Amino acid sequence: MTEKLMIRVGQSHNNPIHWLIFSSIDEQIIASGELDSAEQLPQLAEKAVNREVTLLLSASQVQLKNVLLPAKWNRKLEQALPFMLEEQVACDIDELFIAVGQPGLQGEQHSIEVAICNKQWLQDWLALFNEHNIEPARVLPDALLLPEQQEKELSVIELGQQWLCRFGQWHISAIEKTWGADYLYALQPSKIVHYSPADALPEIAPKEAKQAEYDLPLALFAKQLDKVSFNLRQGTFAAKKKQPQWWKDWRSGLLAASIAVGCFVLVKGTQLVMLQKQADDFKAQAVATYQQAFPGKVVRPHLLRNQIKNELDSLSGTEHGGFLELTNHLVAVYREVENFTPETLRYDRRRNELRIRARADGFQVFGQVKAILEQRGLSVQQGSLNNDGDVVIGEIRLRGDA
User: Fold this and answer.
1) pLDDT value at position 315?
2) pLDDT tens readout for residues 106-129
């Protein structure tokens, strides 16, 4: 996303909330403002749509530490980290959320950067944002986004009634104007680099004004955002994987299409099972018929078609060949004549004659059958024809070579 929404909250929900929309392409402020309290947070819900949201916490509520380690950072040390910090905090360690930063070295000893804040306090803020459909991708202490200076040099900027300070890579603070001088005297920086007018700061060290970079604090933070990899959204507060916009737009249609495809597959699968069962039944009937026609023959279902063809071919050269030849001519009639139904067949092997008793819709059907068979070179005799209600019953005799 090319636009960022920066939201900075205070210690409580009653404190003012600063917000700013920043364009990453041309590094320009698109819009900015201040809410009186968290009750006005719904005003930012629409501004958060299609923008990367960063939640900035007051540096006064997040403590950064470098913890010395007995060995190189590993999973076991991460599990032991709360016990290593227990003596360094003034409250119950179970009330705190510990976020892990980058491991490093202090001299020759391994160390790890950690950020500590009240667990319930952070959970309440994130729950409030979630209630208004605002999902921060990153959560950071605000002062960590001040530009990092040389060793012993201090970066400061004024925000509200506080001065935000960054002293080195992993040391931040938020000081009130009423007691900030005492803090600075104790810190003893070698130089103070300020990004807003600093006339009110005590002259405890040389000051360097970055007037060319004087800007709204959140605009300065937005420019530094890509330079800081740390994120408080980890562990129990890790951000849920955000669904792409195209999925939100097309989710309903895709789900409906998926259901339709699933139903189609289910119906076709059911039909396939039924057709397979029918095929199995027909195969069983074919096997039974073959065994009845050719008793004693071994049936191979996967070769049944070839077996039947072979048996018929063998019959063509025997005494049954005449019968098969005549019936073959009769079968050809079915393709050309409708409503002609044989009822009985009688075959005289000695005379090589086939007598067919059949029924048809009219006298002309028998004449049509006789003509077709004669065209095939057969000797055809038509017997008597009689009406039987709506149908005509008669006999036809086919004779082949004796």
Assistant:
1) 55
2) 888 999 999 999 999 999 999 999
Task: Say how far apart CA 373 and CA 239 lie, in whole Å.
Answer: 86
What's the CATH number for 3-237? 3.30.420.380
Distance CA 402, CA 400 (A): 6
The average pLDDT across 364-384 equals: 87
pTM over 0.70: no
Q: Which two tokens stand for residue 128?
A: 């409030």
For the packed helices 321-334 and 363-375, what is the interaxial angle rounded to 10 degrees? 130
Residue boundaries of the structural domains of the chain: 3-237, 255-315, 322-400
Interatomic CA distance for residues 109 and 160, integer angstroms: 39
| Mean of pLDDT values over 183-193 | 92
CB 389 within 8 A of CB 359: no
Q: Which CATH superfamily is domain 322-400 in?
A: General secretion pathway protein M, EpsM (3.30.1360.100)
**Shortest CA distance to 22 belongs to which of 10, 32, 14?**
32
- Cα–Cα distances in angstroms (integers) from residue 1 to residues 4, 22, 25, 137, 219, in the given order: 7, 11, 10, 12, 17
Distance CA 223, CA 325 (A): 97
d(CA 294, CA 284): 15
pLDDT at 155 over 60: yes
User: In this structure, is the dihedral angle defined by the CA atoms of residues 385, 386, 391 and 396, taken in order, positive or negative?
Assistant: negative
47: tokens are 């501004």
Domains 3-237 and 322-400 share a fold: no
The pLDDT of residue 340 is 85
